[in-house]
Design a protein that fits this description.
The complex is a heterodimer of chains A (115) and B (118). Chain A is mainly beta and 115 residues long. Chain A is built from no helices and 12 strands. Helix content of chain A is 0%, strand content 54%. In chain A, strands 2, 5, 6, 10, 11 and 12 form a 6-stranded mixed sheet that branches. A 4-stranded antiparallel sheet of chain A has the order 3-9-8-7, with no helix packed on it. In chain A, strands 1-4 form a two-stranded antiparallel sheet. Chain B is mainly β and 118 residues long. Helices cover 0% and strands 51% of the residues of chain B. Chain B has no helices and 11 strands. Classes of the chains: A mainly beta (115), B mainly beta (118).
Amino acid sequence: AQSVAQPEDQVNVAEGNPLTVKCTYSVSGNPYLFWYVQYPNRGLQFLLKYITGDNLVKGSYGFEAEFNKSQTSFHLKKPSALVSDSALYFCAVRDGRAAGNKLTFGGGTRVLVKP
Amino acid sequence: GAVVSQHPSWVICKSGTSVKIECRSLDFQATTMFWYRQFPKQSLMLMATSNEGSKATYEQGVEKDKFLINHASLTLSTLTVTSAHPEDSSFYICSATFGSGALQETQYFGPGTRLLVL
């Protein structure tokens, strides 16, 4: 079984401030973790993923995420948020030991960056 | 690279009619395609997984006869909502993967199709 939780429905941050979007996961085997962003009435855009290797993963648009095995977390971060970062962010996980590559998505976190 | 398109982007239909949604990988051959459904302000719910030339694998609770999936080629998958009813109104999103190993793990999503059944 695999599941992912995004504890915050919405995150508000001022432009230029650091942005953090939280994600915790649960899998039986090896976690493969992903972050996607969705703009209104659009599909999801891939930001970054962790499969193996360095715990700190750098992705698109200046975003990064840190895989923390002991805390079963994969929080998304950006050092300096932009107004254009305002969107809906989804964390997703799959069990690397399971066949196929079905993802389980979190409920999403809406980010609002204020000028 | 890795662009996925969907057509149409919007569709409004009368109750009882069938609607076909196309998902295409424009610059790669898709190993697998996925169909999701998203309700307003909610997360994505996987409906089915399809591979070219084989029958789709549906998630529990998704009616196969209601949501017909045809994966005719490595670049095209279609979802047909048969005898649509207002409760089928939703945002339908497809995704596709390619390659092997770690590369295959990333799903690339289409822009979505919003279906409104009157």
